Amino acid sequence: MSNEALENLLHENRVFPPSPEFAAQANATASLYDEAASDRLGFWAEQARYLSWATDFEQVLDWSDAPFAKWFIGGTLNVAYNCVDRHVENGFGNQIAIRFEGEPGDRRDITYSELKDEVSKAANALTELGVTAGDRVAIYMPMIPEAIVAMLACARIGAAHSVVFAGFSSEALRSRIDDAQAVLVITADGQNRRGSAMPLKPAVDEAVAQTPSVRNVLVVRRTGSDVEWTDKDVWWHDLVESQSAEHIPEAFDAEHPLFILYTSGTTGKPKGILHTSGGYLTQAAYTHRNVFDLKPDEDVYWCTADIGWVTGHSYIVYGPLANRATQVVYEGTPDTPNKDRWWDIVERHGVTLFYTAPTAIRTFMKWGDELPKSHDLSSLRLLGSVGEPINPEAWMWYREVIGGGRCPIVDTWWQTETGAIMISPLPGVTACKPGSAMGALPGIGMAVVDDEAQPVGNGGGGYLVLTEPWPSMLRGIWGDPERFQETYWSRFSGMYFAGDGAKLDEDGAIWLLGRVDDVMNVSGHRISTTEVESALVSHDAVAEAAVVGAADETTGQGIVAFVILRGGVPEETAKGEQLVKDLRNHVGAEIGPIAKPRQIMVVPELPKTRSGKIMRRLLRDVAEHRDMGDVTTLADPTVMNLIATGLDSGSDDD
Ligand code: WT7
Asked: What domains can you pick out in the chain, each with its CATH number?
């Protein structure tokens, strides 16, 4: 029996320091770590000075009512003014803020000056609809410029937005509108997905019929499809376009609510994560400037997330716009009209900074190298990853095939709750190991602790905790302060428990090991699903893997793996028993015999939430031969049938 909180099994020896050329021009230098270490609050005050404050703050942090934090006390600012107007006032009105590309191929460039007019008109429109500071507005929209305008218009008048991902059902929308008591819903007639117009308005109609708090629905015409019309409905083009482009932004308190975002948890009632203004914008801008090395006059930035996730909030809307970025916004899916759409966009727009998720990277690995290789990707100079652990092999593929071996990769760990990046390399400073998020950013307090809240040393595994309050931290769960304390602050006294397992290697670099609920216990060894998945993906034949612990009479839990093969693996190999044997041995060699999967199943797809997280609960059901529970939050509910029929091809050998 082992009493380690989590075994530290996998080893990685490759190291990639930044090139001297990148390091020489980088925004962030190693001195940031020293500055933050010698005076943490002074450091954050300095970062806050990158924003324009209407009233200066008097105190950096009030932590007397922990875990309820207040940052930049006494300060007032307008978040939309910071993201738009001040750039125009500083002479950058003609700079393009958004290079929009619709899925059907329509394009639209929007300058900062045009964005200022659009946001001002929308703010006037919301005011005409009676929305005032402190109200909540639900936004259920495709990835079109009006979605960003809508968020900024809310921020401008001090109404908190609650963006609900447009792929969610009407029931998910209804419960979120209801929880926040939203007074307005902003939506569109539909959105373009995989070459067709998908309706959005019917889901809103259904939700609004059951949510009396909603007084109006503001509808953008995007696809032109027919919609039912009720007396609450107002067309965006009727109301917004006729407004004045003059709107004076009011300054709000640093702690004024900016948005609520419901977490995409795989279990339980969604939590309305509350973020406020001054601290959130400070850290979103600080991390975007230093982690992505943004040069506002030169870079073309592209974050492929949807505004329905926190990544879209912090790294499409607030961070980049506060920093005066020029960015690509793309409406559609990566495989429309062809599987090289993203690389086509990178080439045509000359994208320099690119931020995406491991699930996308592994999908492209599966689709094969030819697609990215048929495009000129030489404009890229930095790559980012977020959302789940990136396996070393996916990291290497990203570096070589997308980054041409020349771009630093920033693996950024954070959560809806943290609001902004917490753990990441600094691209001009840190020598990166493939698969590691490396360390806490300057100004962030982080530790890996055991069950007794004691820090594990280098080489040890345990739980990731945040040891100091940070400016963009969640201020609570909407309407449920007890659940806030209970969920994040009760496990380890005085520390924020993120729910993730992690380990420190011999050099102190951090390796994220997935949610602790996903940890397997095999013969008393706590083994991380992430490590076994990484070992599987490091085999030439495997593009993607998901691993779960299934009840086992002998060992407590047995490791069951589901793998998707890379494009190009011959059919005979895929069906053969030899492959399964090879994979088991490969895991044994990479990690150790204890981690050899009991069973490996080759499957065509994996069950994922719409944000790309694997739903291990469903895979456990399959592995333990149970009926499947709720599959409604799956991005594609049919994959479970595919997996169930593929079951028989699995193997139970030795
Ligand atoms: C959870 C938070 C942060 C925006 C998108 C997800 C996992 C996130 C990483 C990473 C390993 C990661 C964690 C975390 N996660 N980034 N770089 N390496 N794991 O936001 O939906 O709130 O999910 O995503 O498990 O707790 P979210």
From this structure: 20-502 (3.40.50.12780), 528-649 (3.30.300.30)
